[in-house]
């Protein structure tokens, strides 16, 4: 499928961001709200030691205030994630159609996200840290690093804040459900050819301090560097399709991942979901097989092939470029918890983290080989 969304690229972002942009996220928040600022996302654990003579009323008042800050912080974070999600769904009709289809046959309130993923250029502050800083400020915790030598990539994933109902108590779907893990990868630019490095650094220079606004750029569907030349896109694509994708998509959501084991129908089994999608003529990533399975057999993943979007380059060429896709993940119960009854199983009883082998194949969802592959 191809859709035309030139307006998403009509504005590049450098330096200070006009406050009017925030109206597309939430009209009640100012630009100052999005500057890095730590909020108490897990409540205060030492309120009673503030003073030995604190009255019960004062302690209760402080607890109430802390909880209010927590709710405000969580509300703002969900609002930003919601804007990222809206841009993603508007640009990627396959992702929207997939979500709508799954919701139509399952419980729409339990179509939750396992993780959100972003791509970055690992140069001059524009790498993982540019996007991670927002999530770290809101209580996310850095976890393992993954390396992909052949693709010249590395990635980090971040777990949701502790002390919040992000695992099992939250209700709602998508970004309004249990808080998702965050997966951020970066291209190791210094390992590319001198020519590719020169192209990337040329655009990074036009971005200036744009990396400080990575989250805002993602929420608005804007690039932080100038619109590229088609010849530069072509040159990067020859060496790194990841680089070419990032050049035209910037900090946009690369994919969201449906947590299949949270579904309520037979689609909770990822094999059944894959079959259901293929029967409905959705094209799935076939790299290494449609189903990607971790060595321990406990993490099962699959994905659609990315949509394409019509992109007008700065030299006047309008060409189809890869956009984003949607992924599916089933996390099985860990062996030590296998005797739990189904109703007793919580998210922390399941396999956590990511797997290099699986992720390496999922990256191919935006590759030319997958986009041009015939169905079947």
TrEMBL record:
GO MF annotations in UniProt: dioxygenase activity
Annotated EC: 1.13.11.93
Q: InterPro entries, from UniProt?
A: HGLS
- Indicate what this protein is called per its UniProt record: 2-oxoadipate dioxygenase/decarboxylase
Task: Give the record's family classification.
Answer: Belongs to the 2-oxoadipate dioxygenase/decarboxylase family.
Pfam families on file: HGLS
Q: Which UniProt keywords apply?
A: Dioxygenase, Iron, Oxidoreductase
Gene that produces this protein: LOC105132417
Q: Write down the superkingdom of origin.
A: Eukaryota
Per its UniProt record, the required cofactor names are:
Fe(2+)
